[in-house]
Design brief:
467 residues, alpha+beta, Phosphatase 2c, domain 1, 3 domains, nine-stranded antiparallel sheet, eight-stranded mixed sheet, 23 strands, disordered N terminus
Length: 467
């Protein structure tokens, strides 16, 4: 483990290793009776504030609409305000030991307009073993960063991030499957760059933003039970979708993909299920106002027990570390320990705004009263970025297609590396013009290009078999 990496196995009941060096992380362990692991850290930076624009005495002032003012404020958040502080906490209860959390703050990037940092938070919920979750935790960030071309400024880097996330997820999946392991994992990967939040996800580990009382879901559940488009895609690729059958022929349980019986349509790993279970993530990128907000990232052990609205309500008014612990406790109280149950809370706080209220540990009875007192019954739930956002959230990007041509097609030019050679858009392998195959199939001269092995993977994922 690197000194600046903070990776904790949320499945273990004890913490064997604590990050050292520049981090001021404090790892807290709860009482043995609760078996909850909690950690928190606060970080932040400052930038020069810009002077307000002055209007001349003879210049007429034209009033702006409220929507225009809010939109302008969102666009200028990163330049008008210092970088937000992050306060985060995590908690979990283990059943099978397959949930893993990844946290890395102050990740440096060297761009043409200078060196800057961003932060990453992720949850990997493994199934059929731990191998896929562990491998993904150790490799997704590296694979995403390797997908960026050189020569970008900060704005271009942010615009390119959704493409890099797709390439990184597919590369991680491809490399893991070489190990011939049968396990798989969900992945919910959050990148925070100032007031811009980008989330890439496969599976059903949900991420929700609570901003000024409005809830915005930043992921989709890739469950066959709820996604008809994904069911149709798998069937078109040659897979079968159905429920378990009893001896008498009655169907029980959720819809599953056969062979394999997986309930998810997207994941990393799962090589024994079929290539049509794809690692291509749903990606949503938003910008929040300088008022900040709270991110709730959790595995399905939480979401199967609590609704999105109840999850947010039960932890409002609590510090990040207590909020994560409260969510896990409420999930266990509601449904019991049926699965690994993990929650990660990230508070994005304006350095010029009020700090979140810190409360002392309370008994279960007093804690419930606190939740009821501090939660508002009139909060609006926004499944997407609808009108309920009241201008506090701005959509920048959203795409969920499972087709690589749709997701990598925005790459410019011919995906050339530093030396001018062609470069595979997924694995970054150097390829000759004769070897490179367009991601667009028959359009041989239109990039981006894939190496033969990545092209073979694309064909398999999309239901095409090579002769």
């Amino acid at each position: 483990m690197n000194n600046d990496d903070e990776q904790q196995d949320i499945c273990s009941l004890g913490i064997d290793e604590v990050p050292t060096g520049g981090s001021c992380s404090e790892i807290l362990s709860s009482s043995p009776s609760s078996n909850l692991n909690v950690s928190s850290e606060m970080k932040g930076g400052r930038e020069r504030l810009m002077s307000p624009k002055r209007v001349g005495p003879d210049e007429p002032v034209v009033p702006e609409s409220l929507a225009s003012l809010m939109n302008k404020e969102l666009h200028q958040s990163s330049s008008k305000h210092a970088k937000p502080s992050l306060l985060y906490g995590q908690a979990g209860q283990s059943k099978r030991g397959e949930d893993y959390v990844f946290i890395k703050t102050d990740v440096e990037r060297h761009l043409v307009d200078g060196v800057s940092t961003f932060d990453v938070f992720a949850i990997f919920d493994g199934h059929n073993g731990r191998a896929a979750a562990i491998y993904s935790r150790e490799n997704v960030l590296k694979d995403v960063l390797s997908a960026f071309p050189p020569g970008l400024n900060r704005s271009q880097w942010s615009d390119y991030l959704p493409v890099a996330l797709v390439a990184g997820f597919v590369k991680t999946d491809k490399e893991f499957q070489r190990q011939e392991q049968s396990s798989g994992t969900t992945a919910t990967f959050v990148v925070i760059d100032g007031y811009t939040i980008t989330v890439a996800s496969v599976g059903d580990s949900r991420c929700v933003l609570d901003s000024q009382g409005t809830l915005t879901t930043l992921t989709v559940d890739h469950r066959l039970e709820v996604d008809e488009d994904e069911r149709n895609r798998i069937q078109a690729c040659g897979g079968e979708v159905g429920r378990l059958s009893t001896v008498g022929g009655a169907e029980i349980g959720p819809l599953r993909c056969w062979p394999g019986g997986l309930c998810l349509s997207r994941s990393i790993g799962d090589m024994d299920v079929g290539e049509f279970i794809v690692p291509v993530p749903y990606v949503k990128q938003i910008r929040i106002s300088s008022l900040g907000g709270r991110l709730i990232v959790a595995s399905d052990g939480v979401w199967d027990a609590l609704s999105t609205e109840k999850t947010a309500k039960c932890c409002r008014g609590l510090s990040a570390e207590l909020a994560a612990k409260a969510v896990v406790k409420e999930a266990l109280r509601s449904r019991g320990l049926r699965d690994d149950t993990t929650c990660l809370i990230v508070d994005i706080i304006s350095p010029n705004g009020p700090q979140p209220e810190m409360v002392k540990q309370k008994s279960s009875r007093n804690l419930l009263k606190y939740f009821q007192k501090h939660s508002r019954s009139s909060k609006k739930l926004a499944a997407g970025l609808g009108d309920g956002g009241a201008g506090s959230v701005q959509m920048l990007f959203e795409e969920g297609s499972a087709m690589l041509a749709d997701r990598l097609g925005s790459l410019n030019g011919s995906s050339r590396g530093n030396g001018g050679d062609l470069q595979c858009a997924v694995c970054q392998a150097s390829i000759t013009p004769a070897e490179g195959v367009s991601v667009h199939g028959g359009k041989k001269l239109q990039g981006p290009f894939l190496c033969p092995s990545c092209k073979q993977k694309q064909d398999a994922m999309e239901g095409r078999r090579l002769p």
